[in-house]
Amino acid sequence: MKELIENYFSLIAKIVISILVISTLFLFTRFSTEFYETAKFIVLGLVVSLMLILVALKYTVNNKVTLIRTPLDLPFLILITVGVVSTLISPSPYISLLGNQLKISSSLVGLIVYVLFYFVLTNNLKSEKDITFLIYLILGGGAILSVISLLVFAGVQLLPTPWPQGVNFTPTGSTVATTAVLAMMIPIVASLVLKSPNMSVVLVATCLLALFGSTIALVGQMSTWVAGTLALLLSILAINPKLDLKGFKMVNLSLVVGAVIIIALVAFLSFIPPFGGTQNPLNERAKSFPRELQLPFIHSWKISVSSFRDSPFWGSGPATYLFDFTLYKPIEYNNTNLWNVRFDSAFNEYLQTLATLGGIGLLGLLSLTALFISTAWAVLSKNNHQPLELGLGIAGITFFILLALIDASLVIWVVGLIILASFMVFRLEGAKASPNYARSGFKKTLLRITSLSSRESSETIRVEALPSILLVIILALLGVASFFGGKLVLADYHHRLALDAVAKNDGITAYNELIRAEQLNPLNDLYRTDIAQINFAIANAIALANAPTEASPAGTLTDQHRQNIQVLLQQSITEARQAVTLSPKSAINWEILALLYRQISGVAENALIFSLDAYGRAIFQDPLNPLLRLNVGGTYYAIKNYDLAIRFFTDSINIKPDFANGFYNLAVALRDKGDLNGALAAAQKALELVDPQSSDYKVATDLVNDLKTKTGVAPEDSSLTAPTATDKEALQKEELPDVVDVGEPPEKIATPEAVKRRPSPSPSPKP
Fold first, then answer.
1. Could you tell me which of 180, 240, 190 has the C-alpha nearest to residue 210?
2. In whole numbers, what is the pLDDT of the chain averaged over residues?
3. H/E/C letters for each residue in 156-194?
4. CB contact set of 641 (below 8 Å; sequence gap of 6+)
5. What are the helix (H) ranges across 404-551?
6. Range scoring the smallest mean pLDDT among 56-65, 70-79, 145-154
7. Residue 93: enclosing H or E segment and its boundaries?
8. Is 451 exposed, middle or buried (0-12, 13-18, 19+ CB in 10 A)?
9. Torsion sign over Cα 181, 182, 186, 192
10. Which of 377, 421, 367, 427 is nearest to 397 (CA)?
11. How many other C-beta atoms lie within 10 A of the C-beta of residue 34?
């Protein structure tokens, strides 16, 4: 009877793991704010929950708790412990718990789910047959992903218009994730080609090798090119370290060489431009194919080391790299073409861990890496390994190579953990005959479980009623997690509906959906900033629709309109203030609050003072952002405080010396103050920096010509564009009555220090 139940549980586990693999590779939806990762994570959480219940039920039926042990258990425990401590002491604990801007995979919850997934895999994969089925399923999924990627690369539109897709669409949500999965599959198919005795398997694997490699060459980028190449080389070296031709079967070697030639030819044609009047559409397509942005290594290194300097042990908290980026980015970052992009992830997983989980977290990840590579290499150094075992070992090493080259997404982590768990179970197959010990005492049990030197592959704990207690605990914890998780998922669904309503210009529906989302998840700062902006947009629309016109000089604004505007604007400010309270390290939230204050300056006393204070706090969180300084200068210019306007415009160009907009605004402010020579010099510099083909070039040219002919202050009827933030929207006009109470102004505006001209960055550690 127990054997029948065991087989039944194994079948269920096999089915749910298969569903997880398929959903991880292909699932995406329009019913969540983020189309790809959220849906995949929900399925991952459900699968892990179900498999935990299955494991607990199995323990209860067998009346014993049997834990499968691997050398990777201790590093995973270290990572979870560090993640919990780091979240508790993080300045943004909610962000650390659930992720920043709905990116769950890097959060504490994501980390816990990953580790539990590894645990349930190692405790449910029982045989080589199970592992073979799972890996072949991933290989089949990889083949479908490759075909989809190549069709999209060729310009084929696979989905109807309402569905999200671009010229680099892929079901994983990222071409990097797709090609990373294919790179991890390269060692498996290469090993099958070189070592499998079944010729049909060899032929299929050869086709997959050529397909995977060609897809990586066309739609991948440097990180996956390197990982795929190293994966293939390591596979060949593991089979024949001396590269002796006699060590290969010539037919198998010929097939590998043929696949490599195909890959090399595809890569060559995609890189070589046409010459001699010929055409090369592959090259043209490859040049226009968008590649995903990645924070450069040197800047990421400086940011992570700076975060480590301030939080050496526990880091800034899971999922808080965006805050580390804005606070610690080096000034030379503004000289790159990515200067206005805010990154929420580091160059690679190791730098991400150093910044967010500190030195102890990095130690845990490095231990995980070293233990797997040493274990894999010890197995691969033998000559009697099977093709799948060899492929899994090299695929696991490839996974860690990828972690050193990119910041891993959910898809990469799930496939990587499947590979690690499969290899470890494969390795422990020979240890099944080892005796299991039933020793009492939880201290000894814990020491044996975390031991790296013991040869036992499993640990059996016999304590009366322990399996039943464990089942009850797991059910209770999963019940609580399901309740709160369900509310979070439902809130995200309503947020998606709100975004769809905004796209249709349906402000009322968007407002109602956002209110539902906030009620379900009141701790999400994103919902609050969205509600704040929707409230303002509706109020502004009412004011514009009923403003005085030539046909109606008095306007059509009724008392009810005024009351609605007042309520909406008051709610807008309240929600934006709540957002900065929930996430005070977010420069984005402070910037939104500052913009809202500025936009209601006509109907709220002291609104500009609050705006300047919020901008100052945004600058404290993002000190080297030239756009924030430009906006502060524009706000001071709007109230004719030219000295401070000039100071902040100067700050913006000192931070970014090639900032054309900063020079233009500085020129206008200097002109209006009366410094025509300084204004002319700044305007000429702006003209040098503007693209001659852009519309801004004419604007800058007009300013230069105007200044060259001026002998005094520019006349009031000048048609030249004024600096940033001087536009007068419906709720910014000075003659409007005060209807919004924003409270007493701060005693001192949070004003950052001036930036020295062309400052030299402080010495930073070099990698």
1. 190
2. 86
3. CCCCCCCCCCCCCCCCCCCHHHHHHHHHHHHHHHHHHHH
4. none
5. 410-428, 442-449, 466-503, 507-520, 525-545
6. 56-65
7. helix 93-98
8. middle
9. positive
10. 377
11. 19
Residue with tokens 């977010």: 586
Taking 90 as the threshold, does the pLDDT of residue 737 lie above it?
Answer: no
Q: What sign does the dihedral 16-20-21-26 (CA atoms) show? A: positive
Q: How far is CA 292 from CA 40, 155, 167, 219, 406, in A?
A: 20, 18, 12, 10, 11
Q: pLDDT (tens digit, 9 = 90+) per residue, 544-586?
A: 887 776 667 667 778 888 888 899 999 999 999 999 999 999 9
**Contact between residue 233 and residue 213 where contact means Cβ atoms under 8 Å apart:** no
Q: Give dist(CA 321, CA 345) in Å, integer.
A: 6
Query: Which of 578, 565, 606, 611 has its CA nearest to residue 742?
Result: 606
Q: How many CB atoms lie within 10 A of CB 722?
A: 15
> How far is it, in rounded angstroms, from Cα 640 to Cα 343?
35
Q: Which amino acid is at 50?
A: L
What average pLDDT does the segment 235-241 reach? 86
**How many CB atoms lie under 10 A from the CB of residue 291?**
13
Three-class DSSP labels, 571-630: HHHHHHHHHHHHCCCCHHHHHHHHHHHHHCCCCECCHHHHHHHHHHHHHHHCCCCHHHHH
- Please say whether the beta carbons of 510 and 534 come within 8 A: yes
- Per the structure block, which two tokens stand in for 662? 């900063």
φ, ψ dihedrals at 587, nearest 5° = -65, -30
Largest CA distance in the chain: 101
- Angstrom distance (rounded) from CA 137 to CA 146: 14
Please name the residue that has the structure tokens 């699968």.
47
> How far is Cα 631 from Cα 162, in angstroms, rounded to an integer?
36
Q: Residue 605, by phi and psi: left (phi above 0), alpha (psi -120 to 50) or beta?
A: beta
Neighbours of 465 (CB within 10 A): 10
The residues spanned by each domain of the chain are 2-431
Contacts of 114 (CB under 8 A, 6+ apart): 413, 414, 417
Length of the chain: 767
Beta bridge partners of 459: 67
Q: How far apart are CA 571 and CA 521, in angstroms?
A: 17
Q: C-alpha angle 143/243/416, rounded to 5°?
A: 35
Quote the tokens at residue 281: 């559409």
Phi/psi at 460 (nearest 5 deg)? -105, 125
Contacts of 640 (CB under 8 A, 6+ apart): 672
Contact yes or no for 694/707 (Cβ under 8 A): no
Other Cβ atoms within 10 Å of 89 Cβ, number? 14
Question: pTM score, two decimals?
Answer: 0.90
Q: What is the Cα–Cα distance from 319 to 110, expressed in whole angstroms? A: 10
Token pair 């992570």: residue? 304
Taking only the tens place, the pLDDT of each residue in 272-326 is 887 766 778 888 888 888 889 999 999 999 999 999 999 999 999 999 999 999 9
CB 208 within 8 A of CB 185: yes
Task: Return the SS3 of 452.
Answer: coil
Its sign, for the CA torsion 701, 705, 706, 708, is positive
Query: CA-CA distance, 332 to 29, in Å (whole number)?
Result: 39
